[in-house]
């Protein structure tokens, strides 16, 4: 229930008797007659008189007592009050709580309590009504109706002609404080205990009832709220109301006491609940206190409480573990006991300012243990108030963060340094570059970014393994460190790419000097795991502010210059120039057009015949890809296939080339040239990013070309780099009858053991060896050795790029099986090949 009184009731528990006591008590000495005493009550409109001796209450006589007397044998003028009073009198102290008073009223069935001071002298009186009325009882009264307090028994009635003593006896017999007086059994008036007191006081007990009864009768409906009923009684200075039912008949009498009793019941219930709650709250808070203490004791964090003056009042066990000071050593000291001297006065000023402003402070601080060791801790200080004394206290909670700081340092190292070479990483380079650019701008100086890429480093990794590659990188990093000035940064930004940031540059001469140092440093061979390796590097450089005023532009331009150096033949250096930008813009545009080349049908195949050198008979064709670009016209594969590989487009393009070559070959088969073989170039990504075997099977299935007529050309580097990815699909395809050729043989580093591992059918000797024939005897010997070796391995040999008769003759002489080259045919469109086949 939503009860607005909970608050006041809980509040009342805390109030004391002093707050409601009535000090104007009607008193009389014990030798007062009953009449004198009642006269005092009557004159003062009081319901009781306290009999006092030497200022101390010795008894009390109340309106209720008036009914206990037999007036037939009593002389009110001579009967002394101390003979009739209730004694000993129930008293309560001024500072007793109202709940104590309520308990006394209920336990002893009292309606009055005499209030005494510390000297036990009379101080005042409280009635049960006072306690109840002092609560905000409107709520209860509004909620209840008069009918709820109607006594069970019908009101006692006496005829108006009855004598007054008979009427009082009837009242006493029915144990009520009021009776109805009737005429012809109709209620017309009322006699109450207050009337009796009045009659005693005025010596009118002999008068007829109808003269002294209270009239008129004031009636209310049984549905009236108790709040209205109480208000009516207070307004009319009456203590009883007649109650009428639906048929307007009198059905009872209710008294002020009845109203109070009802409130009292609700009040007492509420009071009991409030007390129960308070007990539960107390138990809970005691519980919480115990728990808090246990937590503080068990806490891994050190806890220290100081008073307002900074004197340590308490510490927990973790404090001792962390600082080395026992509780006894710490109490009474100041926190400066732990001071390391590492923080200056400013630090403490800020700390106190924050504490004042926010009531708390949090941060890192260096403290000293008892053994002198200085350590970092994370400290939280909070202002708290001592509940009992309302003192301001400071609670400090701290933890040792030595380990955390160590981990942070490791993480920072990982975040800013390359774990392999210990060089600054990309992030740190960027940070330093930003700072360097700002400084250069302020000081009107230049700076340079030197992009270094090791030539053919990938080959070292692929052929000799990553651990050798790693050692090479560490050695290169060391050598580069020695080439730069203090204040410059050499960083590794990934793989074999390193960048040197040179600051305070005034002239490009200094760049050239550093570049020369780098070339010299790399000239010397590197010995790793028994291998003597010769390294070269391609270097590109961009200069601030000429080549860019922001980080990304400078990096991009250094990278572009490095690529230019690489394409210039490696082991060279290139300063960035705006021209290069143009080239890279062109490449960008090419990239975007290449994305749609396939869907726009801009790709097509040309075919170059392969001849049997013994008979000069055409035995096969090599499919060669072309791109008819709408902007640049026909673009050769050397220019766009590496781009397609970089963009990840070669998988789809390669699958299309396979499909188209098989379809075309089948067309020629159907035209009567069923012996013709078709060779198709395959890119490494067709093994790694796609399932080559699936693509091949699909192309064969769609075209109907027999598998034995398809030859796949893979390059040496493709085989070396992806030996694991390559073996399984090639074996699967070879089982179906497809043949495999190794293209560009002699340009890579493939070993004999690798050759024997691969499922090969033929080797294609690279054009670069053929072109040296017959002038270069070394090439001649190399080619004849290759043919011999291939035959020993059971492989067929194809010579590429035969341009002259002499080459043709020499190859025939050494027993080379097949050849292709401009001497016979250039790559041709399929229609031309068809014509060629007919002739
Ligand atoms: N100077 C000279 N060159 C000759 C002679 N005979 C043939 N050639 C050229 O040598 C290349 C032979 O192809 P490749 O070594 O497989 O080298 C191919 C191959 O690696 C790649 N390629 C071509 N088509 C495809 C394809 O469909 N897929 C893949 N992945 N690569 C392809 O592009 C490379 C270049 O192809 P092309 O420009 O068509 O160049 C062809 C051909 O035109 C000659 O006597 N003298």
Automatic annotation (TrEMBL):
Q: Which InterPro entries match?
A: Biofilm_reg_signaling, CBS_dom, CBS_dom_sf, EAL_dom, EAL_sf, GGDEF_dom, Nucleotide_cyclase, PAC
Signal peptide positions on this chain = none
Query: Top-level EC class, please?
Result: hydrolase
Cofactor(s) needed for function:
Mg(2+)
Stored Gene3D superfamilies: 3.30.70.270, CBS-domain, EAL domain, PAS domain
Q: Which UniProt keywords apply?
A: c-di-GMP, CBS domain
Q: Which GO terms describe its biological process?
A: cellular response to nitric oxide
The record's GO molecular-function terms, alphabetically, read: cyclic-guanylate-specific phosphodiesterase activity
Q: Which organism does this sequence originate in?
A: Pontibacterium sinense
Record has Metal-binding as a keyword: no
Q: Where is the EAL domain?
A: 587-839
- Boundaries of every CBS domain copy: 21-78, 85-143, 149-209, 213-271
Known EC number: 3.1.4.52
Query: What name appears for this protein in its UniProt entry?
Result: cyclic-guanylate-specific phosphodiesterase
PAS domain sequence ranges: 288-333
Query: Could you tell me which residue ranges the PAC domain spans?
Result: 361-413
NCBIfam families the UniProt entry points to: GGDEF (TIGR00254), sensory_box (TIGR00229)
